[in-house]
Amino acid sequence: MSPARPAVAVLGLLVVALAACTGPAGIAAGPSAQTAAQTAAHTADSTVEPPMPASTAAALTSADPTSDLPPTVVPGTVPAGTTDRPAPVPVRDPSLDQPLRDAAWANDVPRAAELIAAGADVNAKDDTQQSAYLIATSEGYLDLLELTLAHGADLADLDSYRGTGLIRAGERGHADIVGRLLRAGIEVNHVNRPGWTALDEAIVYGDGSPSYVDTVRALVAGGADLGRVASDDRTPLENAQRQGQNAVVVTLTAATQPPPADPTAALLAAATGGDADAAAAALRAGAPIESRDADGRTPLLLAASNDRVDVARLLVLLGADPDAQDDRRDSAWLVTGVTGSVAMLETLLPAGPDLTLTNRFGGVSVIPASERGHVDYVRRVVQTGIDVNHVNDPGWTALLEAIVYGDGSGPYQEIVGILLDAGADPKIADAQGITPLRHARERGQAAIADRLAAAGG
User: Fold this and answer.
1) Is the whole-model pTM more than 0.85?
2) Would you state the CATH architecture of domain 296-454?
């Protein structure tokens, strides 16, 4: 197993452009964290299975949300596009490689970025075959992984067990790392020295918990070999059955059925109905992750509209776009303001939704949420940095809609308080020049009127 290191709180998020780390969708393997006992028991030579199906690779590639980002800007250099001078390349400094690995174990992303900019190599290994990149995959450090991918991480690099980063992540149930590596183009069916693939390790060393189920679904969607007999003479399904991982058994059983005749239709139906296993099977069969129905709705938008969190989580792992809008200008992110689903909001946040994206009324998600009285959603979404003073096309802010379309009851009183505490301006009037305070008084919403008056409205 990978040596245990103390976790250190991340000091801050490094803003890095990701285009440099984005490659054709596929699955790349990462080093496995096996025990010494396994190594002794399994001495088979490392082999490599065939790559994932081209249809699956194309489907995943079409959805990578990082593909349109600008080139990586190395700290201390001139951003691309601001000058004709090419950005300077850091001079290689091997003396910084161990400090980089130390920073990687500590998940100190800002420090790691400084060291890389000064000449450290994300692929440089110590005598235990650990590199900053491989550490990120085994420890589940997504921001660190993004940093290493942006600076040349070698997806084919292997650890001391001849395993890839995907195998390491699969063993630990790091579904987000697995999804990111698949989108980067890592080989999904690499076999390490003990004779395991990433799918094998996610089952044999997993416990069938939700994070491992998500990991297995992502690997299935990415083209993992379901029929391969591992070094223990069992298939993935047989190992899942043997270990009583019922949810994983259901996932693998669905994936071993004949592929759908129309993968795109199957994916859209699975997203609507909430069948994450059918969604994985449809993606595996080649359905584009950004498929559209007759109304322009993507699978992720359908999942969000129907609050199908399991499906949405799979789609986000594989790079679905939370900002893709349909014919009515709805997106998966915008719809969360209508449904009020905090669980869906949390599922979509890792995909980096555009908080400024507007619906057909020119509003951001906090406005319909305030109108509909979704207290918990409003409480959570104001923590994202969304503009609580955004004015939509009819001239309403979230605060105005909570008053004008609300009834002054407890939930709306809470929402008004949350918005004011988050910086909502009580003096912003509507298109007719009527302030929130006047609206509240005219509607007999005494408690809200008192709160607005106290806030300077």
Assistant:
1) no
2) Alpha Horseshoe (1.25)
